[in-house]
Amino acid sequence: MANIIEITDFQSPELDVYARLTENQLLNRHEPEKGIFIAESPKVIERALTAGYQPISFLVENKHLDGEAKEILTSCPDIPVYTAEFDVLTKLTGFQLTRGMLCAMHRPSLPSVEDVCKNAKRIAVLENVVNPTNVGAIFRSAAALHMDGVLLTSGCSNPLYRRAIRVSMGTVFQIPWTFLGATDDTPHYVTMLKQMGFTTAAMALRKDSVPIDYPALVSEDKLAIILGTEGEGLESSTIENADYTVLIPMSHNVDSLNVAAASAVAFWQLRKPV
After folding, report:
1. What global pTM score does this model have?
2. Which residues are CB-contacts of 205 (< 8 A; sequence separation ≥ 6)?
3. Maximum Cα interatomic distance, the chain, rounded to a whole number of Å
């Protein structure tokens, strides 16, 4: 039996995670072990639970208690379920809930770079991709198009921001990922990936770039595909350290694709042959 709690007090501190805390407050950079994230919609929440993420509470529109949310809530009988009518929840959160359901969850400890890369043949690397929509879309493509893991520099938007999770359709819970070290004492991450046996391919619009269908790329046993920030692209040091610079040939005088669209093309073209 689910632990149903009708909302009567908008100022209840248990509702702060849904109504009053920002993404950065939820992230809790000073005490990351206490960090929280919000998953939205039954499908996304189910993927998080299946992956072992631990729920704190649910926020559910009344009409969904016996609908799509029922099976999830039944599987978490001891977790508080805050509920109200549509208008009340929209007023509380400031937005319409996707399929009438949110879940606050504990942020897990992230794996090491070595653990993410240990058995991987294809790794996606995101360098300073700041838009959470793009991060979410790249994760969805990475999971669908045969990437084994994702590494992010410290300048990237966090994959567990609510919008990134929603755009990814919960694939952030299905593919291994972690952040690269950010201290000046660590070697450039491209060098580190090479030391781990990866050939590195930097997606960059340069005259010396090879086209994405360059035969040698696909034949590489272990390949790291590096994608840069929106607009400015990759750091020059990243390009200089990479084994290849790679471009997607364009037509009709289009200079480039959005980074999320480019990732889908790159992941499909450069996937490991079966």
Report:
1. 0.92
2. 233, 247, 255, 256
3. 64
